[in-house]
Amino acid sequence: MTGFSIEKFDFTASGVTKWGQRDRKHSNWPVVYTISDTDDLYIGETLNGVARLNQHLATEAKHHLERVQVVVDETFNKSACLDLESFLIRLFAGDGKFRVLNRNDGITDSDYFSRERYRETFVDVFDQLRSEGYFTRTIPEIENSDLFKLSPFKALTHDQAIAAEDILEGLFKDIESGIGSTIVVQGNPGTGKTILAIYLMKLLSDIQHHDYEEQVDQDSMFADFFVPGHRELLTGFRIGLVIPQQSLRASIQAVFKRVPGLSPDMVLTPFDVGEATEKFDLLIVDEAHRLNRRSAQAMGTLTKQFGEINDRLFGPNGAQHSQLDWIEHQSAHQLFLIDSDQAVRPADLPRAELDALISVTESKDRFYRLVTQMRVRAEADYVGFVKEMLAGGTPDPQDFGEYDLRFFDDFDEMRREVLRRNEEFGLSRLVAGYAWKWKSRTDKQAYDIEIGESRLQWNRTMTDWVNSKTSVNEVGSIHTIQGYDLNYAGVIIGGDLVLDPISGRTRFERSRYFDARGKANNNMLGIKFSDEDLLEYVRNIYAVLLTRGIRGTYIWIEDETLRERVRKSISLLPTHGT
């Protein structure tokens, strides 16, 4: 392939005219361009650079932009330019130096002739832009960041895209007719439920604020929503994204702060919703299985607040209502993203309530299932393998390709391997179930987990632990890692999950489980939780931990009998080298 060039000039009428006069191809050749000032940047692709840039000059929203950079290559075609445009949008959004002004509906991930060769050129384009100060980090550093992972600028999988289009079609029909609606999206870990939620927040904001003079890519499957009528239906439309988990919520708020059309105050706790005096038009609830039923909360003030919200919303006889009821009461439309197998505490919504919600939406054709695995780079059914393994079974051997799934007898060796992977790829962490007391919570010098020669503490922060400076030398809990990706996860399965030699299945060991709220009875609802009840939550916890790793998962198990069973299961897997 011949080389590319990046041509630079001022974003003015004279600058565009002079550039156009230099080469006839500037008005008849596929190119990719950026327009930027100190803070904002727009990325585009076109077959007619001069005409497209003049269109931007006529757009008031871009009058503050100052510089143009055009990537020109004699080998470029339309497909390559669409791909490069998407590549740069994702990386600029993930880097965070600029606010990306693009809509998110045009991000593509389509194959085409010689794509791998073009992708080599794209990296060279990135490197040149970085050398000129347009990026602050390397590609691996960007791809490991929350700004990248939680960005709305994503190419959707086929099932995500179909769900998004159908959800929008139904939503606009219901808004127009004045009918409320409830929608459910269900998916296993790693199928992109959070990505879909964030994508829809940005897409709805873009439709809501769309300037009809702005060109819309007619090839986008969402182009029909950027037509007269839809924007008007969203006038004054109040949207919120509800995130039950503190850590994930803070990370998404940081992303929303950098995305035009979105803001951190759009990211809500369930309590924010319950306390709201003005109802929402649409609430999108991610990790909806982590909504709470009436129960003792982490702090006494929250327990009191829970009761006060129920009294205000439902009257004196409404004490038993859940946070799911708050969402439904406080909004005209609701979209719940659910994985019933990721409920990890007795306070979480019970499976029966989630199943009832799913059943209702299925009967109204408002239920969608995500199946494409986006996180774990393993072929075959890795999630199913993990669940059967945690139940104590010996799952059928499957070929997980190059996925690095390993069992370790020596914990210190596993820890060293995680540290090596962190040096190589970043985002490699140790995580564990609640089988050790949290001594360091009150004694900062104490160690919580002592195995072999290793002496470790639990996570020192509950907010964005994965990216904290000390996390590589700590052990993360379920509440710091649910909803996040790792490159490699070193999973410690403690004595709270053991294999019963008589039944041949796993059982819960209550004396070795130290999450007080994770095994407390619900006195407010008069519910007592048996060991069998709590076993489901503990299995769910370990299933979540074992599905965090993109490139690989390493396992160490305390219970000797379970250790032998899992070692056997993993030893039967085909190997491809490490």
Brief descriptors of the model:
globular; alpha/beta; seven-stranded mixed sheet; Rossmann fold; 578 residues
CATH homologous superfamily descriptor of the largest domain = P-loop containing nucleotide triphosphate hydrolases
How many alpha or pi helices? Answer: 20
N/C terminus separation: 33 Å
Radius of gyration, CA atoms, in whole angstroms: 26 Å
Global structural class = alpha/beta
State the shape: globular
* Average residue-wise pLDDT: 95
**What top-tier CATH class of the largest domain fits best?**
Alpha Beta
Q: Total number of β-strand segments? A: 20
Give me the secondary-structure topology:
Layout: E1 5-10, H1 13-22, E2 31-36, E3 40-46, H2 49-57, E4 67-72, H3 78-95, E5 99-100, H4 115-131, H5 139-143, H6 146-149, H7 158-177, E6 181-187, H8 193-208, H9 230-233, E7 239-242, H10 246-256, E8 267-268, H11 270-275, E9 280-285, H12 300-314, H13 323-329, E10 331-338, H14 351-363, E11 367-370, H15 382-390, E12 404-407, H16 411-425, E13 428-432, E14 449-451, E15 454-458, E16 474-476, H17 478-481, E17 486-493, E18 497-499, E19 506-508, H18 516-519, H19 531-545, E20 549-557, H20 560-571
Parallel strand pairs: 3-5, 6-10, 6-11, 7-8, 7-9, 9-10, 12-20, 13-16, 13-17, 15-16, 17-20
Antiparallel strand pairs: 1-4, 2-3, 2-4, 14-15, 18-19
Helix pairs in contact: 1-2, 3-4, 15-19
